[in-house]
Fold this protein.
Amino acid sequence: MIAAIIAAAGSGERFGASIPKALIQLGDRSLLEHAVSAISSVADQIVVTAPAGYEEQIRALVGDGITVVTGGVTRSESVRLGLAAISGADFVLVHDAARALASKDLISRVVKALQSGDVAVIPGLPEVDTVKVIDANGYVSATPDRATLRRVQTPQGFSYSVLKDAHAQPADATDDAALVANAGHKVRIIEGEERALKITTPQDLTAALQFIGSADSFSTGVGVDAHAFAEGRQLWLAGILWPDEVGVGGHSDGDVAAHAICDALFAATGLGDLGSNFGTSRPEYAGASGVTLLKETHSVISRAGYSISHVSVQIIGNRPRIGARRAEAIATISQALGGAEVAILATTTDGMGLTGEGKGIAAIASALVIKSA
Ligand code: CTP
Ligand code: MG
């Protein structure tokens, strides 16, 4: 029996999105879904470690038949918690959700090497840079022979008892093979692959897109919305509530920034507009919040195979002052759009026009989307 642990409990600090890295979209699916799909071709049992608070969302994403456990503070701790949910396995594969594009072929080669007798098998690629060992003062203390170095990847495969033994003590290392080697076991290196790169930064995501053949199919769109101020209404703008401001009219919450972004996304993907997707023919969306419409728009375009590279919106009006709450608004919108990069700007119009006369608020948005092949 082959079990697999997919480590997905990291926050993705270096990536810098407002959602955990494993939930970032790559083409038509999240990193985690890519990893699950490849590993399910060989594993009989799969355990996913989720960031605390995201367990339900991840359960819904990966579906029944996959165990979701809460991860730990370090990757090693997450793997230990995942391991505790496994019983009766011969082999365990430990894989990073961040290595979303590791191929089925690589995963099967790890398993084959285990089946032919190695107790620990890890993929690695030759190092191309010269690597230095440095001391605490920033001076070079050694230059290992580059020919003896490998950049190692996941999935790393182990005999169940060997991995259990290595994790018996709560030690910490950046991979499981280090713990297994420390426990005195031999670790075999097999040939890795470039597409199993670890997605750490947004640049890595762009590199990963090359492997799924969608790097070239970008498209853009623009969306505009405006609403007049209406006394007695709350102001919702850019996904958040502005308590001391006058609201705007409209049959929804009147969030012009959210609406402009939705239309920019529909424009970029050619999938209609806000009205045709959520208009009067869809009464369930009457009065829907800006965030709900952003989420729904994201799901419509995702189903059509698009992912969002970037959206920006410029809010035009005398009030409110956006600056102080910009970060909060960006985080809210980014979260509604599956972690997309978001920019929010604001301007007045020097007293001219509808917004300059203080009659309402307008917004202009642009979106850059990627179509997966
Ligand atoms: N991971 C985990 N539990 C942790 C930390 C990391 O399960 N406490 C997982 C991550 O979700 C990722 C893999 O281990 O799939 C490799 O870690 P890394 O690429 O470092 O991801 P993050 O820790 O999320 O990123 P960062 O270090 O930038 O915060
Ligand atoms: Mg990390």
